[in-house]
Design brief:
The structure is a single chain. The protein has a single domain, classed as Aldolase class I (TIM Barrel). It starts with a helix and ends with a helix. α2 packs across α3 and α4 packs parallel to α5. It has 229 residues and is of the alpha/beta class. The protein has ten helices and eight strands. α5 links the parallel β4 and β5. The protein has an eight-stranded parallel barrel with strand order 1-2-3-4-5-6-7-8, surrounded by seven helices.
Length: 229
């Protein structure tokens, strides 16, 4: 198991290089270039969605890649790397670590979180990051074998703390830091350097930022909103 990748992320900025189909930046060519620019800017790692984009980024950078595969399955709420086949696909494309839904909600084929993590460890030999939305989920994910827990899903499950725009869930970070023993990564709604600094002060292992860095339409919109106000 290559746990060195977790140490490589410590104290650093992870840039989430993702662009939906509605974006002009959608596609491997653009995501590979974005990954390279993130590295030039000093990022310590990347979070990338889907085998094609991961493969493109792997050709452009040597940074650790946290791979995910977003896929919706009818009748199931979780959609972030919820099957072994998806995990295998992104690892074979160059991901060093698999991130997956860690909320404990049912997965396709009735596979449990513990079973999926164990198989990823055993057959793919990479660490696993569990995206959780509450403290209880973080505790359960660590018990299930997750090597890292992340605040990614806070505000995106109906029972978690409601999301506050442009503000990370500092309370969940505090609770996780005080309770679990594995590294905790902050992801979700981190929009300023001061917020990132606060995350590290509270004990975050690393901070993952997406839209505030890699979504030009969203960034432009925030400035335009300021003009209107």
């Amino acid at each position: 198991m290559n746990y060195a990748v977790i140490d490589q992320l410590r104290g650093g900025l992870i840039v989430s290089c993702q662009a939906g189909e509605e974006s002009a930046l959608h596609g491997p060519v653009f995501m590979g270039a974005m990954a390279r620019e993130a590295e030039r800017g000093g990022a310590s790692g990347l979070r990338i969605d889907g085998a094609p984009d991961i493969h493109a980024a792997r050709q452009m950078t040597h940074l650790p890649i946290i791979g995910i595969s977003k896929r919706h399955f009818a009748g199931y709420d979780p959609y972030i790397t919820v099957t072994f086949d998806l995990a295998q696909e992104i690892v074979l494309s160059g991901a060093d670590l698999v991130a997956m839904d860690g909320t404990g909600r049912p997965f396709p084929d009735n596979v449990t979180l513990e079973q999926l993590i164990a198989r990823i460890h055993r057959e793919l030999n990479v660490p696993v990051m569990a995206d959780v939305s509450t403290l209880d989920e973080g505790i359960a994910a660590e018990r299930a074998g997750a090597d890292i827990v992340a605040t990614t899903m806070s505000g995106y499950t109906p029972y978690s703390r409601p999301a506050i725009a442009h503000t990370p869930d500092f309370d969940l970070l505090r609770d996780l830091i005080a309770t679990v023993h594995c590294p905790v990564i902050v992801e979700g709604r981190v929009t300023t350097p001061d917020q990132m600094a606060t995350c590290f002060t509270l004990g975050a292992h690393a901070v993952c930022i997406g839209g505030a860095i890699t979504n030009p339409a969203s960034i432009t919109g925030r400035f335009v909103e300021a003009i209107r106000k």
